Amino acid sequence: MSQTISKSLMGGEDVSVLTVHTARPYDILVGTGLLDRAGEFSRQVNGGSRALIVTDSHVGPLYARRVARSLEAAGYRTGEFPFPAGERSKRLATVEDIYAALAAGGFTRADLIVALGGGVTGDMAGYAAATWLRGIDFVQIPTSLLAQVDSSVGGKTGVDIPQGKNLVGVFWQPVRVLVDMETLDTLPVEFIRDGLGEIVKYACIAPCLCEGEPLFGRLERGDALAPEKRRETILACIDCKRGIVERDEREAGERKLLNFGHTLGHALEKYYDYTGVTHGCAVAVGMAVLTAASERAGLTAPGTAARLAALLGRLGLPCADAASPSDYLAAAALDKKRAGDGIDLVLLREIGSAFVRRYPLAELEGFVLGEGNAAE
Ligand SMILES: NC(=O)c1ccc[n+]([C@@H]2O[C@H](COP(=O)([O-])OP(=O)(O)OC[C@H]3O[C@@H](n4cnc5c(N)ncnc54)[C@H](O)[C@@H]3O)[C@@H](O)[C@H]2O)c1
Ligand SMILES: [Zn+2]
Q: In testing the pocket of ligand 1, which one of 151, 196, 237 has its CB within 8 Å of the most ligand atoms?
């Protein structure tokens, strides 16, 4: 990782820079005080004259003014598009309103969208950027832990429709990502926990190293997000996703590993109509239930499920839900990872190593519930 991260003293601030080598490469900057330098860092990669800050009703009042001031100092005319916080806003109707704001502001191909907020903001603002005039630049300023370690990396943008989550979308890479760790200080604890769900995912699927130590072990010690450790933890996660995305930008193979816990997690989210359970908690349940099933089927090293469950518990994440898997698995049939009558499941060989296995839909429930030995 040390080869891919350069720490540079940019104007006195210590900023870590990680380059994502996708078809259109871009830098992810991690540090503190980056909100006040959004203009300068955007200007380095975009020559437009207007910037629309898309932000939600929680994040906007906290941070939009600072970002706007910085963009204005860098010569941008700014506008703000605030929307009601929450997954329910991540839909086409809101994107249409963003288009209206872009049209009213006279945004051209050269101009910029700035996504300031969590994963909902990034996914939706990114989708608007990808489609406005067939694609304009956007800068991500992820403010939730989940967005900083996951959704702002890799260029997946999109929205939900009533039939399912993230069913409409497009790959569109940002021109820059600014991770200001200070924004985590205002993030409610339940959303910190949500981000931890994705961090556990990385620690499970790849041999993620964090300052030379496996990330899973650091999480077990309980200090991964301590102020003096969080930069390295966040960088380890970004670096893990960056590597996978670089090798498989369009999810033909390895990138599927990032869906560990997500097939069941999405089913659970849908079962509760996207309101009863948060994304990270749903993914935690998905990881735990699936790993217990694959261990029962002899596909995962003995003891893995217990170790995972213990870590999830220690982090305040659930391992099970009141609803039984057979209740929410019906919803999985619509998951977009489904191919024909089969469904790709990401399973662990052991902590730090994962693989993809396709199951006929008809066998999914039996496998998860451990009936017979559907895995073989
Ligand atoms: N594109 C991808 O690759 C990808 C990957 C994972 C998840 N996602 C998507 O991300 C979304 C979930 O992301 P999320 O959990 O960030 O949701 P979110 O954007 O709704 O943010 C969670 C909550 O935290 C608030 N918040 C965010 N930053 C804050 C801050 N600094 N201070 C105070 N409050 C703050 C938000 O207002 C919101 O209420 C889902 O829609 C999911 O589908 C996308
Ligand atoms: Zn996720």
A: 151
